[in-house]
Write a structure and sequence with these properties.
Chain lengths: 146, 146
DNA sequence: AATCAAGTTGAGAATGAGTCACGTTTCATG
DNA sequence: CATGAAACGTGACTCATTCTCAACTTGATT
């Protein structure tokens, strides 16, 4: 996948610029993330990785997720659980989330009107917007027939 | 304060309807919440209460916060920390939050256009909306002059 | 290719928010 | 004011995440 190579390059150059090391662990984790469904959590991913590479530790997975989030390859978000979720955020347009409380399904959406109003709200309040997160929690219609 | 009495009544009737007890602990905690700034967290509140009433336990504070959230006297929310925040939600209109990452200031806002679009997004995706949460993280202009 | 300083890792201990179990206390009703 | 269910306080526990630190890589330099 092209994006993967580009992400590796981005990681590599960030590390070089900051005198950090390009390790096989970091590469492996990035690779596995690209083969893994979005909106995953650290523990899930760690177990997945452990099944294929029995030498990567939980701490390294957590540390690498942090690193990749800082660089802008991942986005860390709260989807209403008591743990963080992550998804790729590399050359991808912004979106927010609609989450079914019944089955956990996550729908992504992006609404230009909502986005615009947010910028205006920041403006009005003398704030510079850094990021935002909109989560709508609901219930799929199919769960109605109880 | 009038709202406080009304909230006590709401609590009292909810408890009666469900064969639960109106305890002094529950009353005390509700009272302290009304004297406490909004968007507080459980631990903060617990310490505050402990300074005045040395017999109320942490577990009871947590249990009561849950109870009050279920009844609709409080709203439990995630303001971007690794702990929950709470605020009064009794006879108050819905709002969302604008949070300064520099100083932690929280601005409340409600935007009818955003709210309407959210309902439409749910509609379009065959979901029934239960609740939502929009957090905008930014930086107050006054921090710019670094 | 050998060296070496500094960054990184794995293992497991530590942390911190929140929950649970359980023996004791309190409330509401008769 | 006796009764029994509901709540309480304590402290142990859970679970995600972070920290510590000795051992191990990395990559720039000889
Ligand atoms: Zn958005
Ligand atoms: Zn997403
Ligand atoms: Zn809203
Ligand atoms: Zn608020």
């Amino acid at each position: 996948m092209l994006d993967f190579k580009a992400a590796v390059n981005k990681l590599r150059s960030y590390l070089k610029e900051n005198n950090l090391r390009f390790t096989t662990e970091r590469l492996t984790i990035l690779e596995e993330i690209f083969n893994y469904p979005s909106h995953f959590d650290a523990e899930q991913l760690f177990i997945h990785i452990r099944n294929k590479h029995d030498n990567i530790s939980r701490a390294t997975v957590y540390r690498t997720l942090d690193l990749l989030s800082q660089i802008g390859i991942l986005k860390k978000e709260n989807l209403g659980h008591n743990y963080a979720s992550y998804e790729l955020d590399f050359n991808l347009p912004h979106h927010d989330h609609l989450i079914c409380l019944e089955c956990g399904k996550v729908v992504e959406f992006a609404d230009p009107v909502i986005e615009k109003r947010q910028r205006e709200i920041c403006e009005k309040n003398g704030m510079e917007m850094i990021r935002h997160q909109l989560q709508i929690f609901g219930r799929c219609r199919e769960h109605d027939k109880k």
